[in-house]
Amino acid sequence: MRTLIEYYDKDVLKNIVAPLTLRPDRVVYLYDSGMTDMTAFRALETCFREHLPKIQVEKYAVDIHSVQKIYQKTCQVIDRCGGECFLELTGGSELMIIAGFKAGCEKGVRLVHTDLVRNEITDLSTDEIVAETVTLSLEDFIHARGACFIGESHRPPAPEKYEAINAMARYLFRHLSEWKPTCSYLQTVAARYLPHEVFMESKEQIFMKNGKKVSPNREILKEFQRLGFLKNLVMDGERVRFSYCSVEDRQYCTGYGVWLELYVYIAARQAGVFDDVKLGTMIDWNAYDGVVVAGNEIDVILMDHSMPVFISCKLRDADTAALNELLIAKKRVGGWFSKGVVVTFSKEKVEGSGTYKRAQELGLELLDSSDILAEDFGNRLVKAIREHDLVSLKWKKV
């Protein structure tokens, strides 16, 4: 039997990469005895069984403040291996690694370390590369975290719709002052109809709940029709009539900020270098409590070389609350080994605003309107993600 011994770590990636790469028959975790939530190991087992259906997962508590006790427990586990044994020294506390190195050397087991940035597992005795790490999916992270996907706020568009959406998005970005009241008008009218209905009719000038008078911008409605989001548009000066081309088109046309989310999602998809690109992802952070509760929606999430990347899209100025929300989301899933990008329709980066400087301090990339409106936005998005240097962030006050 092939056994892999792990020191449990709060960073999910450190717990799952070596087992999924080395594919042992049994993986044994030594964890802090002060840890009380055992669903963490249930979550790890769920993650592993997607790839290794017969794997055995065991766990043993240790006093992480005592090198001697960690050493003794590690030796006991090694003695019971009964076959090939690996001891990974990547996760856990500093004292765990010290005790593990001592136990591994004395017992003659193979000591390995996983470089999560270089994507390789190395033999600590010889510096030889044991294996290149496997490519992880978003589901691997979510399952290992004890969370689950519970849906999408917006259905991702079909590829044949990409060109029209990009054209409409760029049009709206250039006419935001007209788009805001038009969107309010479309939202107010749509609220009178059932969610599946696509035909709409209303007075051209209406009152919203707050008593404010609003009417749509005619050119925007014509552009929606020209690009295939609505049809049979009639505006006679008194009333407006039209039909959305689909329920999804109705959702897009009544969402003010969704156009930036769609724009970023399509750019990530068309880049062709990312895996698992998802739009408007909603996550239940505790899949084992019997209650389905959606956490904060993540506008766009994708995988880049087995690291999750979280993108927050704001069709307005970003603020500290938006940065903190993104920071918390990425830490909950990927820990330190994840990336965060804010795409905001503002001049934050160009003007070097306080928000931009705060994003840099938090280790977040920020793209503003100068990037969004650029012809090579897709390349800029890829560059922001690929050049996000996790190693240098070690020495930042994040």
TrEMBL record:
Q: Gene3D superfamilies given for it? A: 3.40.1350.10, Hypothetical protein VC1899 like domain (Restriction endonuclease-like) (3.40.50.10770)
Q: Which InterPro entries match?
A: Card1_endonucl_dom, Restrct_endonuc-II-like, tRNA_endonuc-like_dom_sf
Pfam families in the record? Card1_endonuc
Please report the stretch or stretches of sequence annotated as the Card1 endonuclease domain. 257-370
Protein name, entry field: DUF1887 family protein
